[in-house]
Design a protein that fits this description.
With 395 residues, the chain is α+β, with helices and mostly antiparallel strands. 33% of the residues lie in helices and 24% in strands. Helix 1 packs across helix 2, helix 5 packs across helix 6 and helix 9 crosses helix 11.
Length: 395
């Protein structure tokens, strides 16, 4: 009999203060890339009651009205009244932007390999924007090859925002969280054990007679049905602290990059430590993590393993990774050593090659900044177009 255990992941809505900060940072990045695909961006945002601070290093040939971008982002999420703690039309926006460090830029523009006469082609000329370790992960839990706890949590958080925007539950406000516990048996998800929803609301709302039944009927049950998950015997907690009137930046300061587990795999896989939002694709924190997900997903889609976790690491200014490893947790269907060799033969992890293959110099990043960077359609790193090639390599 397999080992039974519980595993939990969380997500947050687009109105959570940390996610608000992430979306502003990525909106600034998109504004740069829309006119300057070669722009260098490392944008950090802090939000608190009535104030937004946008700081970082940006080198670009275009002009971006950063306060306007920040205000538009805040307003689109639903912060349109000062009593929410921040209002996109009236909040203060402080901008503290400087160019990218020349010491960093020289390693990106001309890699270690190029500077030492070791460059073999154009992809050898661009160095990594920082050192670090990046993780890619995929598993057979769901159709999108994501861990089930984070996949369900994201759907719930997104649904919570959707019913607010659509006016289905007009008393909701932008902030909110979801948390999902899945029962596993021998590494396979068996049932939903617990669902937690914390939804910000207007002050006159009664939790027990209105909000709780509404959230169950309009958020939790539709998501579980859509994902074909059994709703029987699920423990449901809605606003377990009681009231949740004060939320957003008024309740909690938001900061870019503080929800890295929400952004990735819900702690089912480790994290290299560097966040994604606000960074242009020369920063391997972002681009190599996307490439890692792309490769891991194709490995699982090809049937070479039920679970695949890829780690790739770089030294700042180098084009070639310093290491690449793949862990399959005993689920591999092919020789693990040969699997690493095939991946290295088929996929190019040099930063410039990643950027070209995944087409990353485009204004696509605001959309990634809420409800997870992985497991959603429409992003190049979610394609499984190399699964057949991988499978054939082992025939």
């Amino acid at each position: 009999m397999g080992r039974r255990y519980l595993f939990t992941s969380e997500s947050v809505t687009e109105g959570h203060p940390d996610k608000l900060a992430d979306q502003i940072s990525d909106a600034v990045l998109d504004a740069v890339l829309a006119d300057d695909s070669e722009g260098r961006v490392a944008c950090e945002t802090l939000v608190t009651t009535g104030i937004v601070l946008v700081a970082g290093e940006i080198t670009t040939e275009t002009y971006v009205d950063v306060p306007k971008v920040a205000r538009q982002t805040i307003t689109s999420i639903g912060y349109t009244d000062a009593k929410y703690g921040i209002d996109g039309e009236t909040c203060g926006v402080v901008v503290a932007i400087q160019p990218q460090s020349g010491d960093i830029a020289q390693g990106v523009d001309k890699s270690y390999e190029f500077q030492h006469g070791q460059a073999q082609d154009v992809f050898d000329e661009t160095g990594a924007g920082d050192q670090g370790m990046m993780i890619g992960y995929a598993c057979q839990d769901t159709d999108e090859l994501m861990p089930m706890p984070i996949a369900v949590a994201h759907r719930l958080a997104k649904r919570l925002s959707d019913v607010r925007h659509a006016g289905v539950l007009p008393y909701l406000r932008p902030d909110g969280k979801s948390q999902v516990t899945i029962e596993y048996d021998d590494g396979k998800p068996k049932r939903v054990h617990t669902v937690v929803i914390s939804a910000q609301h207007r002050d006159e709302v009664d939790i027990e007679t209105l909000l709780k039944p509404d959230v169950i009927a309009e958020v939790i049950e539709p998501v579980l049905r859509e994902m074909e998950l059994d709703a029987e015997d699920v423990r449901i907690l809605v606003n377990p602290t009681g009231r949740f009137e004060i939320g957003g930046p008024k309740a909690d300061t938001g900061l870019t990059g503080r929800k890295i587990m929400v952004d990735s795999y819900g702690s089912m896989a480790p994290h290299g430590g560097g966040c994604f939002s606000g960074k242009d694709p020369t920063k391997v924190d972002r681009s190599a993590a996307y490439m890692g997900r792309y490769v891991a997903k194709n490995v699982v889609a090809a049937g070479l393993a039920d679970r695949a976790q890829l780690q790739v690491a770089y030294a700042i200014g180098t084009a070639h990774p310093v290491s690449l490893s793949i862990e399959t947790f005993g689920t591999h269907q092919v020789d693990p050593t040969r699997l690493v060799e095939v991946v290295q033969e088929m996929f190019d992890f040099r930063p410039a090659a990643i950027i070209k293959h995944l087409d990353l110099k485009r204004p696509i990043y605001r959309e990634t900044a809420a409800y997870g960077h992985f497991g959603r359609k429409g992003f190049s790193w979610e394609e499984t177009d190399r699964a057949d090639d991988l499978r054939r390599a082992f025939e």
